Amino acid sequence: MGKKWRYGVIFDAGSSGTRLHIYRWKDAEKARHKADEEDLRSLPELYTQKKWTKKVHPGIATFGDKAEEVGRDYLQPLVDHALDHIPKDKVEDTPIFLMATAGMRLLPQIQQSALTHEICSYFRRNTKFLLPDCDRQIQVIKGETEGLYGWIAANYLLGGFDHPEKHAHGKGHHTYGFLDMGGASAQIAFAPNATEAERHANDLKLLRLRTLDGAPSEYKVFTTTWLGFGVNRAREAYLDSLKEQYAHSNSDELPDPCLPRQLRTTLDGTPVQKPKSGEVTLIGTGKFDECLRQTYPLLGKDKPCPDSPCLINGQHAPAIDFDVNHFVGVSEYWHTTHGVFGGDDDDDDSYDFAMYQKRVKQFCSQDWDSIDSKIDHNKKHDAKNAQEACFKASWLINIIHEGIGIPRLGIDNLGINSSTKGSISTSSKKPKGFADAFQPVDKIEGVEVSWTLGPMILYAAGQIPPKSGDDRYPVGFGSNIVSAGGASTAIPPDFLFAGSDWRTTGRHGNQTIGGVHDDDDDDDWGDQAEDLLDKAKDRTTSGILVFLLIFFGFVYFFRKRDRRMRMYSRINNFFHGGKKGGGGGRFGGPPRKGGSIRGLSGLITSKLFGKNGGRSGVAYERVLEEGEANQFELGDVDSLSSFEENNNDYSDSSLDGGSSSSSSGRFGSGARSSSRLNFSASNNGFETMPTTGAAAAAALVDRSGLVVRTESRDRLALPGGNNLQMLNAGRRSRAGSPTRLKSPSMGPYQGD
What we know:
The protein is an alpha+beta fold. The protein is built from 22 helices and 22 strands. The strands form five sheets. The chain has an eight-stranded mixed β-sheet. Strands 1, 2, 3, 4, 5, 6 and 21 form a seven-stranded mixed β-sheet that branches. Strand 1 (5-13) and strand 2 (18-26) form a beta hairpin. The N and C termini lie close together (9 Å).
């Protein structure tokens, strides 16, 4: 790829499986180049694609007693998938994270430690990804941290971090609240209004981001988690209460109002026709109102509340102002309010309590045979979802309205305009946001709302240099410790840094803070060309060739000679560099007789670049030695093989409860478009070295203060003759250059 892209890899290790996510964003300096004022006040813009995501089953916690097998048998397919989509020359500068959630939290501490240690060791032994800090990058995260990451991701996609004049909802401008529920746990995160934030300052998390102009952006967020309140764990608790309720009954059949009528299952949910003798089974009665009544006690609303107000299970929280805090719900909040209960107008994502409850009652009161006749039994999860839908619906209704207190749209009296259905706009031409107190979401602008986006936003923001080098307010989060003067402590003792460092380069980065290379525009052309070549594999051959002829002909007139050489190499690799044994180029299959792709590529390159791919009979060479390489940017030739895509299977189920896959898309809208900043161009041209006197001595010292030996000789290589030795004379390897030492952490990456 070109020089402007950074990549990040994160594994979401949930209770039912582990999903790989790949994100990319522009290098901070490249993004700031030519950025306007609005862009500079925005966060970095991140991108992802559906094919960059892959999931494996089961959950990583199943390796608790066999940690030595987790890498080879479980994680390696995900690693291979990441390597298929990240350019080879970017791997060593790409950070890798694995963050485990509820499933791993349930393991004993000794098994958690054994797994995280083995995972880190495996990554370091078998990959070249950037992994300087295992404790930071491979960990079991707390539920509160997961909720905060989700809050960051949701507000980033919805525009909650945008400036008030660009985005307004509720009473003035405010961020959105975030609700997440999986199989084992549930999370909530929101920024209280100013009054509650001051009253409950010590209950909040201090979050700092950094916009492209280097300015800090600070938020005070409340976040908490309820382990055991995910839908699967709640179902287990509900069954325990049923068994206790009928403990003195002589019958082996337990009536279950949360199952459709006449559905009989074992306690673990397996449907049965005729139970074995003495086997306890559940028999559905389809009484949804009774199901709501029996699931309500599971909220723990009767638990002591030492610090009022409280939400669920005696958990204290600042009072929620639903005029200001509008919530989005992901994972089970989406699947349980849609799925089998989705209507014909399911394109409307808004949540209407009265309409939802009506649909649930209609569904759950049916005979199971009637429901079963409409199920596609080729999809096992469809039957399971239909079987569990009534319980999940009752649990969510109780959590949303009785536990958290979100008003029932159209029923409860609320100050906001409850009669207006609000839905999240996925069009950049419309203002994003919604007016309702609660709305389930799955994707925003085609991108799945996943908490994994949160740590990547922090990492990208941490690579932006602060204004005037003032790093008193680093990117990350920690406890909101308020000083005597009422201000938050700059760096709390438990502050978790973003993991990136703007002050250091990547392993192969050429740092140029304060200036830009004179070929920035050429890099943009190269990246656009390569992206087109990447997409071309999914198109027809004839259309590709016509388009490439026009595009590369246009690019030819706007690129320097050395850039044309790089372009020629990429085209040549594209048409000639098929997989071994294929013989048919990138499009597969044998070459066509009489008019092969290979022959046409020769015609294209001959016309665009001249004979021999743009090489004339006379070659001009500049011979370099150690120390000179870092005085200017070297052109590079990237193999197009970095862009081969591997169409792996992609799962649409969530990690904890089932989550729809994200489609190919990019994050942000016009308000968060790619940002660039104009710097004065540094002198990256060839300089004439003084040959005598003090000037010559001074020229022997490079910018790092190291004495080097530099020669500059112009060679004229004539066709034919014995000039190979002369062309290589004086050339030395740059491997020993002191400027190429590997950095332990990743910073602003300014080039390949």
